[in-house]
Amino acid sequence: MPDGLAALRALGVELPRNVGFPFSGIRFLSGEKAVDACFPHGKGIGIRRTLLHQVLLHEASRLGVEMYWGARVAALEGGRITMDGRPVESKWLIAADGQNSAIRKWAGLDRGKTRRRRFGFRRHFQLEPWSEFVEISWSDRAQMYVTPVASDRICVALITGEQSLRFDDGLRLFPAVESHLQNAIPITHEQGALSPSRQLESVYSGNLALIGEASGSVDAITGDGLSLAFQQAVALAAAMRGENLSAYQSEHRRIAQLPRFMAEIMLAMDGRPRFRNRVFSALTANPALFERMLAVHTGAIPPLSFGARSAASLGWHLLTA
Ligand SMILES: Cc1cc2nc3c(=O)[nH]c(=O)nc-3n(C[C@H](O)[C@H](O)[C@H](O)COP(=O)(O)OP(=O)(O)OC[C@H]3O[C@@H](n4cnc5c(N)ncnc54)[C@H](O)[C@@H]3O)c2cc1C
Prior knowledge:
The protein is an alpha+beta fold. The chain is built from 10 helices and 16 strands. It has helices at 2-10, 49-62, 102-106, 167-171, 175-180, 225-241, 245-267, 273-285, 287-297, 307-320; strands spanning 21-23, 25-30, 33-38, 44-46, 73-76, 80-83, 86-88, 93-95, 112-126, 133-138, 142-150, 153-160, 185-186, 191-200, 204-205, 208-210. Strands 2, 3, 9, 10, 11, 12, 13 and 14 form an 8-stranded mixed beta sheet that branches. The structure holds flavin-adenine dinucleotide.
């Protein structure tokens, strides 16, 4: 998302022009209804995570970071960290070990709220992107989103609250996407992960800070996972420079507020077909509302600037749709 790219730039990382695929905004689809909006500033970039990692690794190596590939980090009694069994001394310890962070558990930072757990699956296909938007299609049981990641490939992700639904069965809920994929060549296998909405009470303790999904997460429908991680990295670097991790705690909370709010708004439509229909009718009748919502989502305008008029207009459309 554009705000994630801005954070990446603030970290000194510029994505080379030839990686990924720029997209202009977001399109929502539900049955016959569609509404879309462009980002108010700049573009987003769809990129395979493997490629993004190469860019990040290149930049980190250039700055002198040493990597220990395949090393396993574990915690010992008494708060000591080991890497492949060897003790590690450090001024700071940053845990970026994902949603099941062992370091978080060891540090006693697991306390918090998990609002919901959904399931996400993705596959990549060799196919020229057909849209300048990331397209999010809605059905009664799941959402499917299509992200262009190169001039000849797309990523298709299914997100659902149903534990037993898998990619191929999920695809049948979205005939329009299915028809686009009819002659497309799958280039990756289905891979899935839990997509929890989790908020922790605290993201630091002593000289230890959590970052990325180790520090909590928002539902994958927001497309904000990595944007959050990059914004957190900017905030954490500033807090480390100031030798004050409590400043990271407050920035972390501030950064997560908006994506969490937007996720709640979007997921109010999940599993509620009549409400979803009303929202789609309201947004298609007044596409400027969707434009403003997207501007809020990407941080281009503060939520309060959504304005009483827009809120009243949305409310009126919801009532009359
Ligand atoms: C289906 C799906 C689609 C998504 N789509 C998007 C999207 O379009 N855009 C977006 O921004 N986000 C998306 N997300 C969310 C995104 O994937 C996450 O936000 C992101 O992966 C979190 O990154 P992370 O580095 O914090 O954690 P992870 O990616 O989980 O990385 C954690 C790493 O730590 C390593 N590790 C764990 N324990 C140890 C240990 N003890 N020792 C050493 N290493 C360890 C793991 O091997 C792993 O490499 C999606 C998620 C899902 C499930």
